[in-house]
């Protein structure tokens, strides 16, 4: 399937079911209690792991979300193995990604304010593709432009004022991830 082709609701639900089964198995192996909630957001299957025990759930998030990221990658591989197609599913644990998005939004808005005040480009610290995408979206919403620079894992976003000639353009130069 081409990356531009949108998957049907049935395909997205199938991916969510496969992912939920896989994660339930992992939780059983790790002896963690947790409920799994499935949904579809922005044409992506989403899986939320919710637990009553704050101690266990923190272990599933990890430092700076490293465990959540690993769970997501493993789950995507499990779905791809069953369906034969790459999945863009999102795995979240106890609302971690929602909190992370808000934090990134705040960082992006601070950068926007700095650029508007100084008129100078503003470089952010290196970020992963998810983080950069959130920042690019916020910067675009605020009427400025942004661009990613560098090589992984040191790829970062620079926020710029929009040139007068760009005011009429809708195209943005950001990661398509």
From TrEMBL:
Stored InterPro entries: Jag_KH, KH_dom-like_a/b, KhpB, R3H_dom, R3H_dom_sf, R3H_KhpB
Signal peptide limits: none
Domain of life: Bacteria
R3H domain residues: 98-163
Gene Ontology MF term list: RNA binding
PANTHER family: PROTEIN JAG, RNA-BINDING PROTEIN KHPB
Designated name of the protein: Jag protein
Organism in which the protein naturally occurs: Bifidobacterium imperatoris
Source species taxonomy: Bacteria, Bacillati, Actinomycetota, Actinomycetes, Bifidobacteriales
């Amino acid at each position: 399937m081409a990356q531009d082709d949108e998957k049907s609701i049935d395909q997205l639900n199938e991916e969510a079911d496969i992912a939920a089964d896989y994660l339930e198995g992992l939780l059983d192996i790790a002896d963690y209690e947790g409920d799994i909630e499935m949904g579809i957001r922005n044409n992506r299957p989403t899986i939320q792991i919710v637990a009553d025990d704050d101690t266990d759930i923190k272990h599933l998030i990890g430092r700076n979300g490293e465990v959540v990221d690993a769970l997501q990658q493993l789950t995507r591989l499990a779905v791809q193995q069953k369906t034969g197609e790459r999945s863009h599913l999102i795995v979240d644990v106890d609302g971690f990604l929602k909190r992370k998005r808000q934090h990134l939004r705040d960082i992006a808005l601070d950068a926007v304010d700095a650029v508007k005040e100084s008129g100078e480009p503003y470089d952010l610290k290196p970020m992963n593709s998810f983080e950069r995408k959130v920042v690019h979206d916020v910067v675009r919403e605020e009427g400025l432009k942004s661009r990613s620079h560098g090589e992984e894992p040191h790829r970062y976003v620079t926020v710029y004022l929009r040139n007068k000639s760009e005011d009429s353009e809708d195209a943005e130069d950001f990661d398509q991830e």
